[in-house]
Amino acid sequence: MSRYFTQDHEWIDVDGETGIVGISDYAQGALGDIVFVDVPEEGRALSKGDEAATVESVKAASDVYAPVSGTVVEGNPALADEPALVNSDPEGEGWFFKITLSDPSELDALMNKSAYADFVAKL
Length: 123
Known about the structure:
The chain is α+β, with helices and mostly antiparallel strands. It has four helices and nine strands. The strands form two sheets. A six-stranded antiparallel beta sheet has the order 1-2-3-9-8-5. It has a three-stranded antiparallel beta sheet with strand order 4-6-7. Strand 2 and strand 3 form a beta hairpin.
C-alpha cells in the first residue's frame, strides 16, 4: 500500500484502485478534540478537491477534501459513535472514507510521507 498526503493535510492509502482517506496527525492536533464527523455516503461521486467530509472539534469545524477523484465505497461507521478515533488514531482507525479512484494519475500531484514531513516542518 502506498500513502500520499495533500497540502490540506488529508492522507490516502492506495491499494490498487481503492484508497482509504483520513486526516494527518498534524491536522487532528491543530483541530483539537474531535466531537463530530460527517462522512460521505456510499456511492457519492467526488472530484479531486471536493468537500467530502466535515469534522468538528471543540475549536472549529473543518472540511475534509477529496485528494483524488472517484466514488465513495464506504464511510467509516465507527466515527459516528466514536469521533475521537480521529484524535487517538488519525492515520489508522480514524479514517474517514474509502474511494475507488477514477484517475490514478492524480496521485502524482500528491506528496509522499517524507515530502509531507518537510512541508509540515515549514508551517
